[in-house]
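Task: sequence in, structure out. Protein: Peptidylprolyl isomerase.
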Amino acid sequence: MFKASLRYYFIAFLIVSSCKTATPPKQVVAETPPLLEIGNEQFSISDFQDAYNRNKFATDSTKELSPQEYLPLYTDLKIKVLQAKNEGKDTTVDYREEINSYRDQLAKNQLVDKALVEKLTNEAYNRLKQEVKASHILIGVSEDASPADTLEAYRAAIALRGRLEEGSDFGDMAARFSRDPAAKKTKGDLGYFTAFQTLYPIETAAYALPVGKISQPVRTRAGYHLIKVTDRRTNRGMVQIAHIMVQIDSAASPAQKEAAKARIDEAYNHLQNGEDWAEVTESYSDDKQSRKNKGVLPMFGIGQMVPEIEEAAFSQRVNTFSKPILTIYGWHIIKVLEKRSIETLAVMAPSLRKKVVTDSRAKLIEQANFKRLREKYVVQEFEEPWKTAAALADSTLRTGKWDYMRAVSADWSNMTLFRIEQKPFDALSFLDYVKRRQQPKPKDASPAIIFRKYYQEYLAESLSDYEKEHLEEANPEFKSQMDEIRDGVLLAQLMEEQVWQRSLSDSTGQMAFYQKNKQRYNYPERAFATIVTAKDTQTVNAIRKTLAVSPYKLERKSQEILFAANATNIDAGQQEALNDLNIIMRKNPEYVVEIAGYRSADETEITSANRIRNVVKYLTAQNIPILRIIEKDYGSFRQTTDPERNRRVGFQFFTQSKKDVEKAFAENNASVSIQEGYFMKDNAAFTKLQWKVGDQTITDNGLIISANVVRIEQPRGKTFAEARGGVINDYQKELEKQLVARLQQKFPVKVNAQELEKIKR
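Result:
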């Protein structure tokens, strides 16, 4: 547990530390005496100063430690690390793998051009403020096509643009000439979009163009695009809806389509008559996923939903529902739950940074990094070896089945393609790289171009690897961070073995520590109570009524299943509904489900019981314990006007947990809370409530607070079982104290007090 927490700390440390600006190389100064000697190890004032600067708020984020206060912490750490090294913990395979993992993460962050990322982040945010409507025509040509084919496609795009400028209709030309498969139907219309919703080159062209203008050819991996902007508008933000869907199959007959329309109209009429949205959704919606949650869908923005629903959702007021809407999936009624405007840059920046380094903008970042590294390091490329290797490019590169293992005279391992500084990179490594990384390409791709691109990628990766290998030499801040990580991992391993694991598993030592320090572990005077808080008395009374009988009845139900006349066996469709119920039960371990069986008056008396039995049998086979199931056979009682619903099995959820009750009531009343347990006299609630057994209700700051105090217990000492958590924590501290004392004897500590005075706060 504690070791895992430390590892998580280091992950966070890597992320935060990597965002710091690298410190410039330190000037060479005259040698100074060590600040600290531990055994045979010496630690300089600069070592201590670096550690102090990073950790002077380690014990309290609001209070800075002085150098003298931090020195014991630093000394204890170094003693423990020295012991771990003496035990050889820094030579194990596990240690090296863990350090390499941390180093890779930290190095990756060092290679990112943070200024460019910030520039792209700001650009993306500014674009997100607007939505652009545009059309395009694609002249297809592979990104790996030959220069001749690429030029031909470019000229075709220029010629087509000329015709458009002369007055040809953009939509007609898109339907005739565009290689976009959807163009014949859409006439090139891309609809409205914003940042991150199309390829970056297309996005950039669209945001730069005035409405009505046509771009020059825009290159993407698919070919050349002509972009025409047809409209702009302010970003409408995000919207969340719930929906009721009556599905229409693509092969549905006219009669089936009419039946679907009649069903959605029936649902709409129920809503118009004031019936509960959740109940109508449960009875009518064919969307099995959203039906379980009152039809609620995830929040979405422009271009993320079918156009008909998107338009209705953004046009409609919150808390209103629409008339039936037809889409390619069927009929829908939507209810708008919430609308949000675009958030501030400060809020969105972290997620935008992640997006700009992973979407099509990432190519810009890679190119900038490649350019920086080429300028930083001396790179020598050798033309003759490249020509020899390039001769191996053939048509199998298009199929992704290329191999260099053939009868050739060249000794690839002794042929240097390029050098970075003085480090040679041989042709064999490059050929292995191509063989390993190759993927099928379009038919018009040129083998020579493909091979050259693989070479550029290999050179770029080699430069990045070279940079990573030499980060400690060029970046003192990185070296300092890695030194701290190495010490931290060794510390974690030593503490796990000598302190943490022992404190958790040594029950004899725990008991002995408890017996010796019993006076530390006491309960003050306490009240055991249930406190219910809500905005109004009606809600408080409803909660109290629910809590009066356990298990507690919830408003939540699962989809009922219907049976044909006299049928009792579970079919495939009913199994889907039961699987949904099974998921709910697994996600909510305190739930109990009441299974209620019904039959028509003309069915035999045992029919409803058999339906219950088969449902229970199916659920227990899915590992739902029988103790979490309540069976109720209502027979032919509670008849409905719908004959089919008289042959049903219904499901009502109960719970053993007051927190589930709180969650259910809080859906409609955010101020609801239910607290149960022991309370001290200084608890905020009991500054207003009376300290006595019984029921009492008060009003405080506009909230109704109702308390049921079951008992008041006098102060007493904790048993070992009650104190065990605190005992383990204190026992750990004692074991660590003993460990440090032993190590201080093993590794004597000498401090140069004069040097310590030089440390800057």
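The longest strand covers residues 223-234.
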